[in-house]
Amino acid sequence: MAPTATIAQTVPVATLKATSLPDAPFGATIQMPEGVTDPSKLSDADFKVLFKALHENLVIVIPGQKELSPESQHLLTKRFDPTTEGNYGHSREFRHEKSVLKKDGKSVPRVPQVQILGQGTFQDHEGLDEVSLTHPIHDTFHKEILSQSKQDAGYTKFYRWHIDSALYGLSPPVCTTLLGIHVPNAANERQKILYEDSNEEIEIAQGATCFMSGARAFELLSEEDKKQALGTTVVYAPHPYIYISEAKATWDGISMHSEGKELSFDDLPEWETEKIKRLPLVWTNPVTGKHHLQAHGCCVWKLERENGEVLELEQARKELRRVLRPAISPKEILAFSWEAGDLVIFYNRGVLHSVTGHFAEGQKRLMHQCNIASGQDPICKV
After folding, report:
1. Which of 381, 366, 291 has its CA nearest to residue 70?
2. 50 falls within a domain
3. What residues does the TauD/TfdA-like domain cover (predicted)?
């Protein structure tokens, strides 16, 4: 009897590589495998490396993606979360006339999970004859607005530190993908942020997207605060972006001033108690096991402690500012400077991020953003 031939099976080898961003507290640049230009088409082996890199580095950058289609961006974003049904991370109230998010972009008609963001007017873009975009600036959201002379001198503010999430009815997305398609040549355009409580300053590129690490925020807590944070639940208001529509943000963009300007629950769109989001203050990274302090300080309604103590709105806001503020110090944040074609993927369950900057008249920016509501809430593993 002739011997049976043995066919050797080749185990796929990942060739995608992640390299730490230079002179940054966290983040990495991704080198794609040879011959692969569309990251949604990565092999399983290479995507596994990408998934791990995201959770370890929190923010990863794939250069050269200017031509990435909305379909591919959606597929890539969805691939990071097998539990998702593919819906955009915000509910339909995203466009409500009273929502603070209503001006933050337009949807791509054929792929509504992808949002068009930026500054200026663009013609014939992704099925839209014309799209006019407005870059969010602190003038419209903060209580204390920088004087024109300060703005002329190059000063700006963190617009709003946040997690991408509806925070009502839907679970927070695992990640957000953000693609820079048309970016002003801002490398030499510098702006400054003054920390009003310490007089520190940080210089950033015009229109930089800033990130803070939730893991670092947790690390910076005292041992007593860590123990308390691990037993704290953040309760968000129903339709939170409508609830805060008349309130104004604090100078640091972490939370809101408590002046009684929030809408009453009776004045909100119809809401259901079971859809109110109650999330742990600390979310555990499933890859690294690290604890991340993750809370949207602008949308919080109250904090509930393990011992039964409840911090109502004003005290809850003050407490979140207290525990998050150290992690936005100049040396702790990543201020990402955009170049056309940059695809930034950030771990939405491990960082907070903020828009910054002002653009001059005539400057234009075009970006595509995608995040998808998860099928599961984040958890804290004590």
Report:
1. 366
2. yes
3. 35-370
